[in-house]
Amino acid sequence: MASSLLTLTTNISYLGDMTQLNQFLSVIKSEFPEDRLTYQKAVPTFHPETAEDAARLFQLANRHKQPIFITGFGNNIDPQGKPFTEMVSVRTDRLNKLIEIAPEDFYVTTGSGYPLKEINVHLEDEKLWLPHSSLPYVGSVGGAIAAGLSASFDNHDFPLRKYFIKATVVTPEGEIIEPGSVCFKSVSGYEIVKIFSGSWGLLGFIVSASFRVMPLSAETEYDRMLQKPLEREALLKALDETNDAVDAVYSRKIKARFDPARVLPVV
Fold it and tell me: pTM, whole model, 2 decimals?
């Protein structure tokens, strides 16, 4: 009897959660063009085409207490299976434009869904180069930032965030912010953008990103650069409430500050 009651209670809870999800999907359909919502491996997936699209979605998610999962392509966490049955996935695939190359100021800006490996193809015409675009990483710009893509170079850590200078980000509360600067001498806000590197999509949705680039002639100096494995475990350890290390406590405070409603749960 107790087992049957537990099963019944679990099923009722599950149906309640699914009802909430279905209601949220109805809201999406009423607020956005029909093509914004698709189903990828049975997971409802939203495809923002602008920062405003993403901001509106997150505002609605806060209002309806709907959990969200951010993904691109080549994602290291495939959004399928039980952990995602009550979530809405947000995909960067339509934010896939090369926005600007500024040869005189040595930076490039792309949408978060743009393939990282494609950047150097276009920079070459301007005699410019981004080191990490030459790595074998096959994912998107946003994914590379979120996963904390890094390389080793002469036994030293060589992270992509070294060149990550500015972004357009939608916070979990639905605010559009632009931390960082493309100016060489800018100090104000410059380092704030770095916290999104290695955040694994838990601090906000990256819409676009700018990187400092270098002359193409420097390419041969980095031929010993090797891509390092992507590791999510360190972040998960830092977000564990039982971890009282100073860095871990600080990480949890940042997460709570950016996502008070927990619309971007740890999966």
Answer: 0.87
